Amino acid sequence: MNFKLVRTYFYFTRGQRAGIFVLFGIIILLQMIYFFADFGFDAKKYPDKQKWLSLQSQVDSMKVNEGKMLSKSYRFNPNFITDYKGYKLGMSVVEIDRLLAFRKENKYVNSPKEFQNVTKISDSLLNAIAPNFKFPEWVNNKKESKEFKKYTNQAFAKKEKIILIDINQASKEDLIKIYGIGEAISLRILKQKENLGGFVSMEQMKDVWGLSPEVIENLNTHFKISVLPSFKKLDVNNASLKELTQFYYFRYALAKEIVTYRSMKGKINNVEDLTKIKGFPVDKAKIIGLYLDFN
């Protein structure tokens, strides 16, 4: 190695050496300023900062309350639990499917115990979710009624006799006396009677929206059809398309099929002829026939 060549790289003039010393001095001065000087911001220069810090606790408490509100549980009817709702409640897929299969049979659970019998959920899960169950009023009224009957005087109960009322003569007050029927449903039944001109069978209670099988059973124990009501029958052979459509059991599509059938086949002699028409509700043929005139 040529040391003389290397030595030339470290050779400085007097001016260069002076510049190097000055540079080192500046570096040392800056390091001392960095270690000993206070670069913190004066709180007095930012008076709003203290104000916002004092409000931070209030903001945190509001967030906590908001979280509680979002997590608040609401009461619900367990008969209408969806897949997502069941998952959120902690039910397994199998347990949810058992409930959905039960509901497909048009059956209802009316108590937490029945819900557990159908779904087979554990006792711990039932205890956790049952307080939020909300069943219809008529279910609760029915339970209260059964409990009350346990304490009635049997000798007095034997003397009680239910007097059947003709459903076509029943008033709103008569209907409301039945457990499960409120003012809205009683008015719905009366409106249905008005649209038909009168009921001809207690089977027509199944057509009233909002009536459960249990309520219909209660209606059958208190009401009946004593005499067929007097109303103007629909002349099925001469009625216009509009008149047929206005009949409760006929919709536009069926009314149109009836008009087509008349034009192609001729006179409709009885309700059996109507059952041959596409879309005719065969299961209600006997009831519908009482409203029709085939002359």
Mean pLDDT: 82
Largest sheet, order of strands side by side?
1-2
Biggest pleated sheet: 2 strands, parallel
Q: In what range is the share of β-strand residues?
A: under 5%
CATH arch. level architecture of the largest domain: Orthogonal Bundle
Task: Tell me the domain tally.
Answer: 4
Number of strands: 4
- What Rg is obtained from the alpha carbons, in whole angstroms? 42 Å
The CATH first-level class of the largest domain comes to: Mainly Alpha
Helix share bin: 40-55%
Shape: elongated
The third-level CATH topology of the largest domain is: DNA polymerase, domain 1
CATH superfamily of the largest domain: Photosystem II 12 kDa extrinsic protein
Spell the H/E element sequence.
Answer: HHHHHHHHHEHHHEEHHHHE
Which residues sit in consecutive blocks of at least 5 with pLDDT less than 50?
147-159
Q: Figure out the total of helices.
A: 16
Quaternary structure type: single chain
Could you give the topology of this structure?
Elements: H1 3-7, H2 14-36, H3 47-70, H4 83-89, H5 93-104, H6 112-119, H7 123-129, H8 137-149, H9 154-157, E1 165-166, H10 172-176, H11 183-196, H12 213-222, E2 223-224, E3 234-235, H13 241-246, H14 252-265, H15 271-274, H16 285-289, E4 292-293
Parallel strand pairs: 1-2, 3-4
